[in-house]
From TrEMBL:
Keyword Cell cycle on entry: no
Keywords associated with the record: Aminotransferase, Pyridoxal phosphate, Transferase
Protein name according to UniProt: Aminotransferase
Cross-referenced Gene3D superfamilies: Aspartate Aminotransferase, domain 1 (3.90.1150.10), Type I PLP-dependent aspartate aminotransferase-like (Major domain) (3.40.640.10)
Length: 460
């Protein structure tokens, strides 16, 4: 970092507040200022190049130099930079994008509601579910079940869904007793000795069943889940898990909300994580790769049955009393539409299916590294979990900050990755990554792991 008084770094420290950052440490350390990008590579203000191994925040699917998206934004900005979707207004990009999303979505989906971020989409889903159950004359049916380690965002309602302690500590959450969390589907961490993957899935589905029964099915509205958990450590569900959980939810008239904010648009090899794990959602939320993150946009996708109920209720109330100034922003919608066209024309899904076996092979090989307890993933997403003792799975002390040490060494080797809770390191490159770049990613990560293994005290 340059320490010159007028440098970008000095001005960042002087004026900018950063989320998910130790603000006091930031005053000492300063920012990594990213100034450019080309393909899967980004560069900082000192000209150093990095392979962006987390696609920004799991979102830059098409990398950092897709000219078609720049053009799509420019065209729309010149033509009509802003209109909204309140009070019967609409715009061509919003109409085309909604139609396209419905065509791409699981069969039950018939309507799309646009907003700006993953958190907003999940907040909206919760509000609409409460609205829906009020409309159905079930005012008690409001409780929501999520999972520990889940990440669903950080606004007040989405923050209640998120099952990570850091999202709550110091923020006076929970503010509501409507949110419940069940066990994360990590067979590695939560499986019992001798328990098979299927048995583990059955136990977790029974836990959901028992919770719903103990709360009373007429008080439970929805179960919210990422098909593959992302920010909680890339937790890949065990065999049979979602089939078993869905059977429980059906029995109790509990909606399934699929949070596809990371999974959606080919991350797991299929269009949706729901396709990969045989999930039939009632509501689906998506964001991030929807626009390759060139502009902020998200969506709540819903079934016709759900829509019919809220449509009647909006007529009763005079309108659907919610929306966002920038929800369905025409420029963001035009960029999202172009992103979906690129996915189709460039056969992004086929590309992911072609290169992901190599990605998963290189990932799996890391399981042999002395620091790695588990290497897990699907499609082009994965994580390694770092442990002191591979046999007993004993973790390092949190204070040792082993995952941050590894991602720190990755930076030195020109690779950006992200430390995750549970001493994991997340890997989620742009979907356009080539096999040669996958090799560079894993070679650099291996070098970083070797560096850290070399300086850690040996296990007793
Ligand atoms: C699965 C999931 N849902 C929701 C969100 C929240 O999205 P945003 O940060 O756009 O509010 C995230 C963000 O990482 C996410 O990973």
């Amino acid at each position: 970092m340059s320490s010159a008084p007028n440098s970008l770094a000095a001005r960042d420290i002087a004026y900018t507040v950063h989320g998910y950052t130790n603000l006091r440490q930031h005053e000492e350390q300063g920012p990594l200022v990213i100034t450019g990008g080309e393909g899967v590579w980004v560069s900082d203000d000192e000209g150093k190049k990095y392979l962006e191994g987390l696609a920004g925040l799991w979102c830059s699917s098409l990398g950092f130099s897709e000219k078609r998206l720049v053009e799509a934004a420019r065209r729309q900005l010149e033509r009509m930079p802003y209109t909204h979707t309140f009070s019967h207004r609409s715009s061509e990009p919003v109409i085309e994008l909604s139609e396209k999303l419905v065509q791409m979505a699981p069969a039950s989906v018939t309507k799309a509601f646009l907003m700006n971020s993953g958190s907003e989409a999940n907040d909206t889903a919760i509000k609409l579910i409460w609205y829906y159950n009020n409309a159905r004359g079930k005012p008690e049916k409001k409780r929501i079940i999520a999972r520990r380690r889940a990440y669903h965002g950080i606004t007040l309602a989405a923050g209640h869904l998120t099952g990570l302690p850091y999202a709550r500590a110091g923020f006076d959450l929970p503010m509501s007793d409507r949110f419940f969390h069940v066990t994360a589907p990590s067979w590695y961490r939560e499986g019992l000795p001798g328990e098979s993957e299927e048995e583990f899935s059955t136990r977790l589905a029974n836990e959901v069943d028992t919770l719903i029964r103990s709360l009373g099915a007429d008080t439970v509205a929805a179960f919210v889940a990422e098909p593959v958990m992302g920010a909680g450590g890339v937790v890949v569900p065990p065999k049979g898990y979602f089939e078993k959980v869905q059977a429980v939810l059906k029995k109790h008239d509990v909606l399934f909300v699929a949070d596809e904010v990371i999974n959606g648009f080919y991350r797991t090899g299929n269009t949706w994580g729901c396709d990969t794990y045989n999930i039939q959602p009632d509501i689906l939320t998506c964001a991030k790769q929807l626009s390759a993150s060139y502009l902020p946009i998200s969506a709540v996708l819903m079934s016709q049955d759900f829509y019919e109920v809220i449509a009647d209720f909006s007529a009763k109330h005079g309108n659907l009393g919610m929306g966002y100034t920038y929800g369905g922003h025409p420029v963001a919608a035009a960029v999202a539409l172009e992103t979906l066209k690129i996915y189709e024309e460039d056969k992004t899904g086929e590309h992911v299916r072609a290169v992901s076996p190599h990605f998963q092979k290189r990932l799996a090989q890391l399981a042999d590294h002395p620091l790695v307890g588990e290497a897990r993933g699907v499609g082009l997403i994965g994580a390694i979990e770092l442990v002191r003792d591979k046999k007993t799975r004993e973790p390092f002390e949190v204070s040792a900050k082993v995952a941050p040490q590894v991602t720190g060494r990755c930076l030195a080797h020109g690779l950006i990755l992200r430390p995750l809770p549970g001493d994991a390191v997340g890997i989620c490159p742009p979907l356009i990554i080539t096999e040669a770049e996958i090799d560079q990613l894993f070679d650099r990560l291996t070098a970083a792991l070797d560096d850290v293994a070399g300086v850690l005290p040996k296990a007793a």
